[in-house]
């Protein structure tokens, strides 16, 4: 045969096509003639995965050879979504893969849709961990993510008569071609039992030995995470629990078929399901077991890898940085101290200092009900040795506070033990004292950390708290989810922004260029058509793509104020009917999000949205000027369609309550305007895009605080707002729930009586801001210029920037 010179890249497609057929035949065991779409997906992933492996091994090897510091990101959640497009696109194989599949009669976009959306997380915190994994690989940081391989991720949401129903999510049902089981990387994790002292206390040989009453095996499953341009491939290592003895044969043979499997079931229950709350920790024993299980397995793995290379633990903190994603892995602080002292025989003080030099802790919420703490009797029963270590650490910290002349109240707030009622271990305080860095996820949130929950710890250790404003990966959240906009940007300003998102600012000078704006807005419209098609397919509701698409997608929470949004829709509905001849701007309000199954108020809000939607959407007097849509089963894949199709991004939390938000960044990057409060990263979005290009309303965090301190009275506020009074009255009188007129009475009463999230106080400002939005939207050149400027100035929110800050200021790595 005639061997060509270096072929143009696209001609690699035949090689890839042959590889896919090979995987299909020999790995899946399917004849291409009878293969189904799902088989093609698996075969394609296997072929792509094989192209990742050399990069993966190179990355691991170079870290080892160059003795680079490794970063370990411990998180109980990784909300990764689909991986195929991400890997293909980061490897630069998108066109090649498309062509290869086309030559086999397969459509890439069709099979990509079949990949399971891995939802091993609840919301923002889990999605941040996934963006960080991709960004750490992209900026060439040797990093490992550690978490749990839940068999069932976040529940699937259905709507039954407008109410949320939860169904199990079975992402592994068709197998997971991305993962590599690592039976050789297995560790024992213990629970319960007793603590013995062996040797003599006096001659220095004395030490503690924990003899667990129960043990399980943690086994690793690795998923490669490909960075941008395939530069580096890192590992996401998820632990699965299995029993030491899969079956007790003696018991089985004696006829005890249930007892023979009891241990096995108990182990498998550990990693069975993700807890579906993203606030209000349930405080259940299984959750603490999950937290300790994955913390312990991860630390044993980290120490094994370090000792294998360096043969010593004294340099651990020079070579290892461990980031705690919230307090969920905080027990790792005590576990590392235990491993260093009891197992590796370092003295306690040395162990404690090494641990603190290794750990960093990221806080994601200030909501008091979301701060984790565990009842002492439970903690002590499950982790008796760790309880001792917590007390020992607490003694050190309290001694330091006394030496600094702290008063009793301050000392009580610093203590690792909450003595105010039932005694509890405060995981936030444990994470704080066990870390050399404690960071917030936006500037405002960090300032509030210093003033509220951690005020006294901050006074004692004033140089530990720092701000690291969240970021998002521009690969998934622009290149992949909005390929047409990405292509336009590239054609307009060149390729530099692909490696440095800050360079998107070069788009700014095109904001008033009619030819550019025309194309930019045509792409937005096309994305709105795609979103409309999804809504038509799933819900049978027809949308007008020229209407303003107003989108609020996030977990359903009172503090996020979806309720304020829907009440405003009711007020608008009222006005459209009473002033039919005004030049209303047609609007579609889209909602999506899950409520924690036990969060009844949040579920009531979902039902309210659906009740209001039914009435408004079916009222001919509205003449299509207002539509309300609740899209079920919000997940990463749905966000990838809804974000590019949005005109308006709703970021309307009560100021001071949303730690950062990251959806806000995704919308701005894709050219939506934000309507928002000065909360979390909204403040920084305003700073970046400029106050003319964002619609800010409502009280500041400081005003919220003062108002509360003064004694907030919602009733009088409601009385003074005609619009709000009428909307609330309509809802509570059953206008939207004719089949059960009092259905929403409790929800409305909680606003009238307490209004903890100050919906009433911000309502008029919100409604006025919405009318400002209408005005801008009607002035197309003004609107379009603002949308372009949002994209142009969102580059700073790249997770690459965030990760570089973590690397240089916290991890001293990379
Ligand atoms: C705790 C115990 C038991 C079960 C679940 C939990 C739990 C799970 C998730 C508690 C909180 C969880 O998440 C909090 C969270 O998602 N916070 C969000 O973090 C984002 C990333 O930093 C921020 O952008 C959001 O503002 C913040 O709400």
From TrEMBL:
CDD domains: GT35_Glycogen_Phosphorylase (cd04300). One of its GO terms (biological process) is glycogen catabolic process. It is found in: Cytoplasm. Its EC number is 2.4.1.1. InterPro entries: Glycg_phsphrylas, Glyco_trans_35, Pyridoxal_P_attach_site. The keyword Glycosyltransferase applies. It holds the Pfam family Phosphorylase. One of its GO terms (molecular function) is glycogen phosphorylase activity. Keywords: Allosteric enzyme, Carbohydrate metabolism, Cytoplasm, Glycosyltransferase, Pyridoxal phosphate, Transferase. GO terms for cellular component: cytoplasm. Its cofactor is pyridoxal 5'-phosphate. It catalyses: [(1->4)-alpha-D-glucosyl](n) + phosphate = [(1->4)-alpha-D-glucosyl](n-1) + alpha-D-glucose 1-phosphate. The modification N6-(pyridoxal phosphate)lysine is found at residue 666. Belongs to the glycogen phosphorylase family. Phosphorylase is an important allosteric enzyme in carbohydrate metabolism. Enzymes from different sources differ in their regulatory mechanisms and in their natural substrates. However, all known phosphorylases share catalytic and structural properties. This is Alpha-1,4 glucan phosphorylase. It comes from Pararhizobium mangrovi.
